Structures are given as C-alpha cells and as structure tokens.
C-alpha cells in the first residue's frame, strides 16, 4: 500500500512537472500584436508551416509576407524559434525607413544577424552594436567606398573582370551554336574575381582559366533543337577559390540551426573540409596582409600607389597608429575579418543581383531594346567609332533609363531580402508596444513594396515618420507588382527626363547608418555589367523551362536558374 501511494505520488508529480515544463515551453505572445492562434498552442509555434514553405519554395522570405497577408495586419508576430522570443514582422516601408534612419537609439543590429557571422567574422563591424568599437572598425575600412577610391581604383578592377566575363561568353556562344547556356556560376565567379582583385590587387583568374579551356575546343555541328541547354566543360578551380566559397557557404549552418553560434563553431573546427578551408583562407589573408604591410613600409609608398582595398586599409592603420602613438598592428583579427567580410559581401550579394539583372533584361525584350537605344544615345561618339564606352565614361555619364532599370531590378530582387533590428529599449511601432530585446524583421518584398500597402492610420506613426511623409512617393497599386523601369523616371524643371531614386518604396540595401556598407561598389558593378552586356550582346529569349523565377535563399535570395542565349553585337 505504501509503495503504491509513493508510486502514484511520484507519477502525479512527474505529470505536473511535465505539464509545467510544457506550459513554460509554449510561445509567449507579445500583447497587442496579431498572431496565429494555433501556433501559440504548440511548442513548435509557426515552425512547421515555415519549414514546409521553405521545402516547397527554397526560400523563407515569402513566408513572412504570406503570413502578413493572411493575418491582414502590417505588424504581426511569429513563433519560429522554439523556447525563444517571438519575432515581430513589420510590412510598411515608411515605418522601416523611420526605424532604420531616424530611430537608431531605439533599434540596433539584431543578435540574429550577428549569430550568422559570429564564427566566420567575429569582429567584423557588421555584427557589432553601435559604439566606439563599431566606429573604429568602420573607420578602418570607410575610405574603400569613397568616390575617389571607387573611381580611380575599384572601377578599373570591375571593368577588367567584366571584359574577361564577356570573353568567356563569346567562347560559350561559339560552342553553344544558338543554344542557351548557364551563366549562374560565370557571374558568381566573375564577381569573386572582381572582389579579389579589388581587395588584394589580383584576381583568382577563375574566369580567365575557363576562357583558356573553352578557347581550345572546336565548334561542333549545329544542333537540331536550339532550345536545349548547351552543356559545356568547366575549368578546375584553385585552393584559394575553393576555400573562399566553402567558408562563405558555411553561413547556411547557423541559418538553419537552433544553436547557430555553437553549431557553426563546431563545424568550422571539426568538419575536415570546412576546417581545411578556414585554414587556407586564414593563410591567404595573412600573406596578403604581410605583402600590403611591406608595400606600405617602402619609401615609394604614397597615395597614388594604392592598388586595392588592403593597401588602403593598411594605410589607414599606419596613420591611426601614428596618431595614437603605438606600433602598427598590421595583422589583427579585426583586419582579417574586415577584409574577408569585404570579399563575402562583394562576392555573393553582388553576384546574386547581377544574375537577376540579366534574367529580367533577357525576359523583357522591350526593356532591353529601349535600354540599348538609350545607351547608344548617351555614348553616340563611341558607338560611331565602333568602340566600347570606357570605364571613366561609364562612371561619369548619366543615363536615367539605365539607373531606372537597375533600380527596378533591385526593387524586385533586393540584395538584402530582410532587414532586421532589435529593440534596445521598450518602444513602439505603429502605436504597438515592442518590448526591449525583441527582434523586428522588415521584409523588402510584399506589402508596400511589391503588393499594395496596408491602410495605416497616420496618427499611429511617430512624429519623425509623419514629418518624413513626403520624402518618398508611393506605388500605384494597379502596377506595383509589374517590372516597370519607367516608374523611376520623372521630368525636372526644364522638362528633361531624370532618374528619381525616391519615386517610391524600395530598400535593397537597407537604410540608415546600418545600411549595406558596399552599396556603392555593388551599384557600380551592376552599372558596368548591364551597360557592357547590353552594348555587346543581344540577350535573346530563353525557353520557359530554363527561365523560371524560382529562388534559392541563404544569405541572399538567388535565382535557381540563370541561362543566357547571346548574339554578339559589337
């Protein structure tokens, strides 16, 4: 009898304890913010639906927009991390701008973002909170985006890389004999070649090696079906290339892990392939830093001798060390992280947007024809001379329709699909209480961007948001989802057509002090790529099976397919 009583008492206690643990593990909704009621009643929250959505579409961003539309609210909360706090999702361009541009004392970089790069770039400024440390790191690399360095140094690296990419596409077109070929890795590799040359002074020569391989192959017989893919050989890559791509791709680990930092750290230290890649990456950067330090120490070193970002960063460190009265710290974790962060951002982010740009232009023949006409008009003398625009001309000449096409590409396919912040104090968004420590996500697609905006009471906005109401236009709901470059054009006081970057909602690089650091370089790369590609080639339509707009989302939202069918013009 006694044992029976003890047994039932223990069982009851276990059941009560289990129930209490279960209740404690359930999502804790933030009062006043709409959510899926069924999700609040289970430990997994909204995660099952999110996983199913990602499995079907290979992207997560659309799930956030889907839930916003489903709940028919501009501010919602989702429970996507078991045992974690709710994520608040806000779909309103004006509010996103207000938070990022004018409310940096209330919102800062989210830990969610920092966790993605904690193992690969532990000291990079992008993952730091605003403060003296962030300022010091940003100051170290700040001049790499100066107009002078962009125009005099980086633009030439970009131009050289695009020229080599076009040599590759000439060879591919010769061998394809009118068939489409995949350009996805071509663009990514050219982007990596560009950013390596911009960062370290010389490229990885991935594209040139591919050109050498294909140039030795004879053209075959013309195929019966021109709509089949031309499958062409790929050149082997270097150890430095493999290491860079492997380390960059490892960011998928924290994105899909419930313990992002620990999981990523374990993989980088114990997974043989990743550990080897990290070692090679570190060795490569150490060697480049040493060479840059030796160049900076030579008697001939001066401003005009700067040939890449590492030279400029080293010069900044030398100047800072003199000012602070300390030895030059030419090889530190900070310098290594800032340099590799420069590479990652310039490789994957820019390469992704470049793919989307050529997909959109290839599938919009009317846009392509008009763009080519506008380019011919802008560079009429060069056209008549049978030449290509120089890099100097490309950087200085204003072509409003070119800017409009690029901006419309980025509106539809943002480099940054989601911008997120964390509330550093108890605050409000659209009159709704946001507790300190809450992660807030702002999708760059969906309502107010690519679908009609929610009807929001202006009185619910902050004073700073109301005062900035006229800073940007709004999109016509009937055409908001269309690819329409003309939406970015207007007439100035003299009746001349000009590009208007504030015509309506778009936030491809974020906004405010925490916006994408490499935006100017990315825009320059896009400008040179699009101009020279449309100038030199006719981008002909690609079969529907090879031109879907399905995405693959990791750090960026890349197209699953990027095929080109090119006819040489110049």
UniProtKB/TrEMBL annotation:
A GO MF label: iron ion binding
SUPFAM superfamilies: Cytochrome P450 (SSF48264)
Region (Disordered): 216-237
Keyword Oxidoreductase appears in the UniProt entry: yes
Keywords noted in UniProt: Heme, Iron, Metal-binding, Monooxygenase, Oxidoreductase
InterPro entries in UniProt: Cyt_P450, Cyt_P450_CS, Cyt_P450_E_grp-IV, Cyt_P450_sf, Cytochrome_P450_monoxygenase
Binding site for heme: 516
Xref: Pfam families: p450
Gene3D superfamilies: Cytochrome P450
Cofactor(s) the protein needs: heme
Protein family: Belongs to the cytochrome P450 family.
Protein name per UniProt: Cytochrome P450 monooxygenase
């Amino acid at each position: 009898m006694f044992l029976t009583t003890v047994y039932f008492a223990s069982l009851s206690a276990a059941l009560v304890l289990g129930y209490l643990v279960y209740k404690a593990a359930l999502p804790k909704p933030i009062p006043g913010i709409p959510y899926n009621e069924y999700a609040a009643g289970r430990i997994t929250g909204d995660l099952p639906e999110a996983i199913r959505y990602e499995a079907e579409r290979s992207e997560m961003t659309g799930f956030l927009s889907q839930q916003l539309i489903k709940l028919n609210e501009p501010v919602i909360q989702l429970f996507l991390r078991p045992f974690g706090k709710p994520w608040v999702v806000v779909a309103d361009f004006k509010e996103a701008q207000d938070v990022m541009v004018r409310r940096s004392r209330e919102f800062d970089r989210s830990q969610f973002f920092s966790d993605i790069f904690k193992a690969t770039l532990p000291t990079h400024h992008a993952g730091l909170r605003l403060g003296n440390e962030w300022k010091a790191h940003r100051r170290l690399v700040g001049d790499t985006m100066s107009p002078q360095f962009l125009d005099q140094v980086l633009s030439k690296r970009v131009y050289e890389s695009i020229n080599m990419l076009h040599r590759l596409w000439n060879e591919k077109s010769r061998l394809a004999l009118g068939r489409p070929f995949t350009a996805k890795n071509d663009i990514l590799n050219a982007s990596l070649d560009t950013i390596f040359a911009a960062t370290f002074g010389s490229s990885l020569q991935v594209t040139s090696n591919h050109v050498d391989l294909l140039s030795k192959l004879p053209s075959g017989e013309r195929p019966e079906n021109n709509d089949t893919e031309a499958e062409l050989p790929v050149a082997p890559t270097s150890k430095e290339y493999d290491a860079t791509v492997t380390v960059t791709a490892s960011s998928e680990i924290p994105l899909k892990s419930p313990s992002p930092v620990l999981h990523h750290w374990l993989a980088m230290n114990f997974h043989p392939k990743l550990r080897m890649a990290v070692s090679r990456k570190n060795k490569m950067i150490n060697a480049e830093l040493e060479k840059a330090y030796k160049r900076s120490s030579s008697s001939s070193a001066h401003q005009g001798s700067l040939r890449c970002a590492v030279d400029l960063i080293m010069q900044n460190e030398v100047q800072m060390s003199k000012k602070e009265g300390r030895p030059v710290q030419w090889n530190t974790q900070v310098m290594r992280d800032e340099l590799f962060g420069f590479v990652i951002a310039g490789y994957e982010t820019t390469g992704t947007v470049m793919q989307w740009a050529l997909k959109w232009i290839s599938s919009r023949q009317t846009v392509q024809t008009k763009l080519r006409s506008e380019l011919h008009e802008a560079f009429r003398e060069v056209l008549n001379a049978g030449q290509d625009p120089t890099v100097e001309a490309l950087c200085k000449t204003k072509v409003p329709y070119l800017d409009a096409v690029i901006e419309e590409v980025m509106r539809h396919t943002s480099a940054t699909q989601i911008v997120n912040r964390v509330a550093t104090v108890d605050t409000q968004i659209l009159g709704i209480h946001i507790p300190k420590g809450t992660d807030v996500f702002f999708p760059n697609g969906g309502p107010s961007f690519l679908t009609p905006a929610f009807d929001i009471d202006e009185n619910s906005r902050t004073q700073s948001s109301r005062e900035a109401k006229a800073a940007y236009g709004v999109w016509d709901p009937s055409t908001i989802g269309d690819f329409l470059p003309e939406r970015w054009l207007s007439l100035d006081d003299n009746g001349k057509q000009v590009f208007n970057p504030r015509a309506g909602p778009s936030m491809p690089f974020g906004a405010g002090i925490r916006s994408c650091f490499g935006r100017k370089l990315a825009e320059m790369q896009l400008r040179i790529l699009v101009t020279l590609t449309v100038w030199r080639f006719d981008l002909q339509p690609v079969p529907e099976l090879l031109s879907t707009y399905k995405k693959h989302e990791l750090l960026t939202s890349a197209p699953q397919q990027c095929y080109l069918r090119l006819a040489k013009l110049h």
